[in-house]
Design a protein that fits this description.
heterotrimer, A alpha+beta, B alpha/beta, C mainly alpha, A: alpha+beta, 3-methyladenine DNA Glycosylase II, Chain A, domain 3, Alpha-Beta Plaits, 3 domains, two-stranded antiparallel sheet, 11 helices, 11% strand, C: mainly alpha, 2% strand, globular
């Protein structure tokens, strides 16, 4: 009996030693020598693997940092300046400060109520629907409302608003990684500078149709009338292909253009309500209520007590 | 291999082809064909006649566009097509019905054709003929056989395996002789000994008529084919008639075949023998819940709303979908103000009860999609791969061979939108290939 | 007018649905249930009822309270599992509570743990059955004697009989019932398995409805027949003859209803032949050289595990090659 136990112990022990030796030599032979800095930097990066930097993931980005030795041309949009400072400290160089950005959905789409012209019954994928037809709202430029952007967002910052069926961005969560920008087959989402006090002015439409056609498609469409370009003190607005665009690097967020826009396509975000302008026509307001965008406060005549203006 | 048997629902076979009246206004799109849009050569205010060239083919893959009506060009602008996409178009206000003098409008059948093959192809190009089987491939390109390749078979697709559609059926019954003359002309253009007309077995009357007529012509053989969808898909038809298989990524001409729709051969006859450009279509207006079924000869550029108004008055209350083409491969329309184009073959009104897709459930791995696939592919696998973004693996499983016949979705007990997913995967995989070749 | 619908083609659908397939499988199992009731009495019906109700109930509870998804009990797949599980146990009164545990394992672990119908790698009914066989070996192999519709002692265990395979293991081949008796089902055993005739009626119905194809049953039964035939020819003393082999135990039920389960069997025809061959081979090996007298459940479960590999290997012939 005893020698059987001994035999088992010896056999197993010998096997263990043999495997250990083999493993040791294999590990030596195939050892990958890696700069420990890569691990350190990867640790600092957000680890969401969002691909916002253009690399395959956070580790690939860390490798790129170490390989390059400096930070030129490399930026982690998701981590922002805080992360870049940490990386800079590890690499021993100086990080350039950059404007914080945020994703902006430039469409007024609303998939409930009168605006819906047809019912889509197929695969819930924007890129497929885009190849099939114009979209439920009948706008061939606008949001399709099937949520590829929301699926692409790794930070829960972009969700489909159940009330309107359109995407909604949570500014605090958005890291401007750009995943949603790439996911949108119609190029509606844009990364824009967050702006001072998070105040931004932009054209909430990408419709390039001629005025009358665009207006027929959507009440809030940009009709390319060019009124906004005339009031802009900084020449930050350009109209091309019947579509106005506010250049965020030039815009000072004065908000003058917003009041000029006849369709409500120009919007200002995070502004305190300005002094009401009695001259506005009521025809403009109606469509605005149709497309409720919760986070957007459009300066418009409202019987609200105004404490101060921001100009 | 593969295939399904949908109910054929050919309820409009008895309706003779009627001439559709000319409306007050037409909109002629500049890209009614596969390829680049034609370039408008008329200006606002110009007077045009029926059959006058108004859009010229300037690119290689392009076809001429002629005015389907006489009147004044009211504007040159974009117009939303039936799928809502803006396309360049010429708007014409109709005045009278004055045809170009060159067009022979007599009912006599002209049998002789003395043109050389090259002249025939040139004339097809001039007359703006495109394939009417659905792809609207410019005819002059199809009938110019590239150097180093040789056409051995001319196959006429009269299968009409799509349910509901009857335009080919009616054309064969009413214009058998013209079709045979058209086929002879194409046979001459290609220099092939024989032309084969493939007709599905569920059309005994056209088979009889075409057989009788073909007997009077040299080198035209009628081949009745087994009833099965998609028997009329190009690759399946070639296989059924010649036994050859078009390899992955190749064209029919690579196996010595040229396939032409039967409607096209009628258009070819009219173009070559009567000098009539492609300005009219045979269009089926059908649907189970419609008060009447019709087959019309319709000028292109008439809006679908006009066609519906004239033929059935109003869409039934329970309309679920209005489809251009058949129920298996046609496209659902979202803008009925859009005009008809050269390839349009039907206005199919599908009732709500059939049009709304049932709720999708889990794949039960029954393999019905795989057995139904006429190309021997695995739709269930594509579905899983594409959901996870594994487009390249889908490509490795020959996703680009898919002919989009829809058999997979048709037979899926779990109602998975298999073809939607496959189309998405094909697009993505093509994108990957394009990006790779750019590098 | 209502809004027009837009979707990609095709715009029509065959009337095929998961629900219809599952209910047709249920229909096909009814002949076997009738025969079982004739031979084993009300106990068989009761066990079936308990099994089906508990399978449906567990699926509903799991979907409602754990997965929090819309319930799918209407599609009939839980009923199929319940019927097949019941058919795989003896028709004894003590099974009435044991089968509830089997149902929980079959539905909970065999199916819902993987995400529900269509995602399970193993046949849920067999998972439940094998669990019971290992956990309750005595009850699971206490076979009631064949009686009438109303056994003398209702709701209690009748005199225990033995299955033909058990008889062979213990007494050799002499004590076996006649082949004809075995074909109609006049023998001991799990009550759904006994009648080859009733199972074949159901299987023919499924074949006509194109819910199963002939490949798996034919390959399964054929392999078992040929393999056991070879063994019988080699040594007629030790091994039983091929006819008895395929008529006893669960081969018929397994080959026609459980190996053909769509979810867990290969998709291509060649794959199905390989699958059936493997099932047949493993069954005979387990029967003759294994610890258990019966090996169908183990054989099918083992082959279930290689189904993904078979699917990967056996591709349909591409048209454009």
């Amino acid at each position: 009996m005893a020698h059987q136990i001994m035999l088992a112990v010896i056999v197993l022990g010998a096997l263990g030693i043999i495997f250990a030796v083999v493993l040791y030599f294999v590990a030596q032979k195939f050892k990958v020598i890696e700069d420990p800095l890569i691990d350190e930097i990867a640790e600092v990066l957000p680890g969401a693997n969002c691909g916002g930097c253009g690399k395959a993931g956070c580790r690939a980005m860390a490798e790129a940092f170490v390989k390059q030795g400096n930070m030129e041309g490399l930026k982690c949009p998701a981590g922002g300046d805080a992360v870049m400072q940490k990386v800079a400290a590890l690499l021993g160089c100086v990080a350039e400060a950059s404007e914080p950005q945020v994703a902006v959905v430039r469409c007024n789409a609303c998939f409930t109520g009168e605006r819906t012209k047809v019912h889509y019954d197929g695969l819930r994928d924007c890129s497929f629907a885009n190849s099939l037809f114009t979209g439920e709202n009948g706008c061939q430029f606008g949001c399709l409302g099937l949520g590829n952007c929301a699926a692409a967002c790794q930070f829960d910052a972009l969700v489909m608003d159940p009330e309107t069926g359109a995407p909604k961005i949570d500014e605090d969560k958005c890291t401007a990684c750009g995943a949603c920008v790439k996911a949108c087959p119609r190029g509606i989402i844009e990364l824009r500078n967050k702006g001072r006090k998070n105040r931004r002015v932009f054209v909430n439409c990408v419709n390039k149709e001629k005025g009358a056609v665009a207006r027929k498609t959507c009440d809030n469409a940009c009709i390319g009338c060019g009124k906004c370009t005339k009031v802009c003190p900084k020449e930050a607005i350009k109209v091309e292909n019947n579509l106005a665009y506010v250049d965020y690097s030039l815009c000072i967020a004065c908000g003058k253009c917003v009041n000029e826009c006849p369709t409500g396509a120009l919007v200002a975000v995070n502004f305190t309500p300005v002094k009401p302008k009695p001259a506005e026509t009521p025809a403009v307001e109606a469509p605005k209520t149709e497309a409720p965008k919760v986070e957007i406060k459009i300066p418009q005549p409202e019987p609200v007590e105004v404490k101060k203006t921001n100009e | 291999m593969g295939g399904v048997h949908p109910n054929d629902n050919k309820i409009s076979t008895e309706a003779a082809i009627e001439q559709f009246p000319v409306p007050a206004k037409v909109v002629v799109l500049m890209n009614q064909h596969l390829g680049a849009p034609a370039t408008p050569i008329v200006a606002k205010g110009d007077k045009v006649k029926v059959g006058q060239l108004i859009g010229e083919a300037q690119a290689f893959m392009c076809a001429n566009v002629h005015s389907p009506v006489s009147g004044t060009v009211s504007k040159i602008d974009v117009c939303k097509d039936p799928f809502g996409l803006a396309k360049p178009a010429i708007y014409i206000d109709v005045e009278g019905d004055e045809w170009m003098e060159t067009i022979d409008r007599t009912p006599d059948i002209k049998r002789e054709c003395n043109l050389e093959p090259k002249q025939i192809v040139d004339k097809l190009k001039e007359m703006g003929i495109v394939g009417l089987g659905g792809a609207t491939f410019p005819a002059h390109i199809k009938y110019s056989v590239p150097d180093g390749k040789k056409a051995e078979y001319l196959i006429i697709n009269a299968v009409e395996c799509e349910p509901y559609l009857t335009s080919d059926h009616r054309v064969m019954l009413e214009h058998a002789e013209e079709i045979c003359i058209g086929i002879s002309i194409l046979r001459k253009a290609l220099g092939v000994p024989n032309a084969y007309i493939g007709i599905e077995n569920n059309k005994p009357e056209p088979i009889r008529v075409m057989k009788e007529m073909a007997a009077k012509f040299e080198g035209i053989i009628v081949e009745p084919l087994k009833l099965k969808y998609p028997q009329g898909a190009e690759k399946q038809l070639i296989n059924a008639i010649t036994g050859r298989r078009v390899p992955s990524g190749k064209l029919p001409i690579d196996v010595g075949c040229v396939v032409s729709n039967v409607g096209t051969t009628f258009a070819v006859y009219e173009a070559i023998q009567k000098n009539k450009p492609l300005i009219e279509n045979i269009l089926t207006v059908t649907g189970k819940k419609l008060p009447s079924q019709h087959n019309y000869q319709v000028r292109i550029g008439i809006s679908y709303n006009d066609i519906i108004k004239h033929s059935i008055g109003e869409l039934p209350e329970t309309t679920g979908k209005v489809i251009s083409g058949g129920p298996m491969m046609g496209k659902a329309m979202c803008n009925l103000d859009g005009p008809t184009v050269k390839g349009a073959s039907s206005v199919l009104v599908i009732d709500e009860s059939e049009a709304v897709r049932a709720k999708e459930s889990n794949c039960i791995r029954c393999g019905k999609c795989m057995q139904a696939c006429p190309m021997g592919l695995e739709p269930y696998l594509f579905s899983a791969l594409i959901k996870n973004g594994r487009y390249e693996e889908a490509g490795a499983h020959n996703i680009l061979d898919c002919i989009e016949c829809g058999c997979c979705f048709f037979s899926c007990p779990a109602n998975k939108p298999l073809l939607d997913e496959v189309r998405l995967g094909k697009n993505k995989y093509r994108g990957i290939l394009a990006a790779r070749s750019k590098k | 007018m209502k809004l027009l619908n837009i979707s990609g083609s095709p715009h029509v659908h065959s009337d095929e649905s998961t629900k219809r397939i599952m209910w047709r499988v249920n229909m096909a199992l009814i002949p076997a249930l009738i025969v079982a009731t004739l031979y084993f009495g009300v106990n068989a019906l009761l066990v079936t009822l308990v099994s089906v109700v508990s399978c449906v109930l567990f699926q509903w509870l799991i979907e409602k309270f754990i997965m929090k998804v819309p319930t799918t009990i209407g599609d009939g797949s839980a009923v199929v599992t319940g019927l097949l599980l019941a058919f795989n146990v003896p028709a004894t009164a003590s099974m009435l509570w044991i089968v509830v545990i089997g149902a929980l394992v079959a539905i909970g672990i065999g199916k819902m743990a993987f995400g529900g119908l269509g995602k399970n790698p193993f046949n849920p009914a067999l998972v439940g059955r094998v669990f019971l066989l290992i956990s309750f070996p005595v009850q699971m192999t206490t076979w009631p004697k064949v009686g009438g519709i109303f056994p003398t002692r209702l709701f209690t265990d009748a005199d225990s009989g033995a299955t033909p395979l058990g008889i062979i293991k213990e007494h050799g081949t002499e004590a076996l019932p006649q082949a004809w008796e075995m074909f109609v089902g006049h023998m001991g055993g799990s009550f759904g398995e006994v009648s080859a005739l009733a199972i074949l009626i159901g299987a023919i119905y499924l074949l006509c409805r194109k819910i199963i194809s002939w490949h798996i049953p034919v390959a399964f039964i054929g392999t078992a027949f040929v393999f056991s035939g070879i063994l019988y020819l080699c040594n007629g003393e030790q091994f039983i003859d091929p006819v008895t082999t395929i008529l006893t135990g669960g081969i018929m039920l397994g080959a026609c209803f459980m190996a053909t389960d769509m979810v867990t069997s290969p998709m291509s025809k060649v794959g199905q032949l390989i699958f059936g061959f493997g099932c047949g081979l493993l069954t005979i090996i387990i029967r003759n050289w294994g610890a258990y007298p019966e090996g169908v459940s183990f054989a099918i479960l083992l082959m279930n595990s290689v189904t993904p590999l078979i699917n990967r290997w056996c591709k349909p012939a591409r048209f454009a090659k």
